[in-house]
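About this split. The held-out portion is used to measure sequence recovery: a designer receives only the structure tokens and must propose an amino acid at every position. Recovery is the fraction of positions where the proposal matches the reference. Here is one held-out target exactly as it appears in the evaluation file.
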């Protein structure tokens, strides 16, 4: 360990990254033992790596920021993180008042808003999600607009230029966006290029843009950037989003709501 204590700061941080590539998660105690440094130095190095978007700082250490190569299929997403999705959806629905025009992006978390909007009247609901559109067919008081376009069968949604053209002709009060990968450095990203246009068109047409994404998706990034987090008005996540991460997002001027589980 005597040699590692003489490492310059960048060398130390490279070693932290190398160990994380093997272990995925490291506690501050592990970092101090592996590099022979103080816990204060370990925390300082992790904080800088987090600012650079190379790791995600947690309460007890650090985890590696990972790349999302493929969008999970809807069937997979529909059965994961259900309590968190319900909590996020309930908090999102509280932003919706009667007579609003809202956009519900494709995704199971956004679709989970449906039961919490049952008593709203005069709503106009716009969605590119085929399952969400079906879920609103029995709503007692909704003007429903289904966004057309090329169908993505894996996610049961419409994507591409035609979807974006429809959204560009609308005036939305709130756009509720979804994402399978997001972090402070890369923003909202996607491995599917054809999803970008519709999301950006919805954001451009909306007075307010809100991201609904659980903490399990934070710290991941994909090939294509949809938007930077500072372009959002609000992020609604679950309580498992660490306080340092929430503070980093809030420093960008974005409101962070960490929804409590039922």
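Reference sequence for scoring:
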């Amino acid at each position: 360990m005597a040699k590692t204590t003489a490492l310059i700061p960048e060398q130390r941080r490279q070693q932290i990254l190398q160990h994380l590539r093997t272990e995925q998660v490291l506690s501050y105690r592990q970092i101090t033992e592996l590099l022979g440094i103080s816990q204060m130095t370990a925390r300082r190095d992790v904080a800088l790596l987090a600012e650079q978007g190379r790791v995600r700082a947690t309460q007890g250490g650090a985890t590696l920021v990972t790349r999302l190569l493929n969008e999970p299929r809807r069937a997979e997403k529909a059965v994961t993180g259900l309590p968190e999705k319900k909590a996020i959806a309930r908090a999102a629905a509280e932003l919706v008042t009667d007579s609003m025009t809202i956009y519900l992006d494709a995704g199971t978390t956004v679709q989970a808003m449906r039961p919490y909007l049952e008593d709203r009247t005069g709503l106009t609901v716009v969605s590119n999600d085929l399952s969400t559109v079906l879920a609103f067919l029995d709503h007692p008081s909704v003007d429903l607009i289904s966004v057309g376009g090329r169908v993505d069968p894996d996610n049961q949604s419409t994507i591409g230029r035609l979807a974006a053209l429809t959204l560009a002709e609308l005036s939305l009060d709130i756009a509720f966006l979804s994402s399978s990968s997001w972090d402070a450095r890369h923003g909202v990203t996607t491995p599917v290029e054809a999803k970008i246009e519709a999301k950006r068109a919805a954001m451009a047409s909306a007075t307010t843009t809100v991201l609904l994404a659980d903490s399990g998706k934070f710290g991941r990034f994909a090939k294509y950037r949809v938007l930077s987090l500072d372009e959002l008005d609000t992020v609604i996540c679950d309580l498992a989003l660490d306080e340092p991460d929430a503070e980093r997002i809030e420093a960008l001027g974005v409101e962070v709501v960490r929804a409590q589980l039922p």
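Annotator remark: Residues 9-23 form the longest helix (15 residues).
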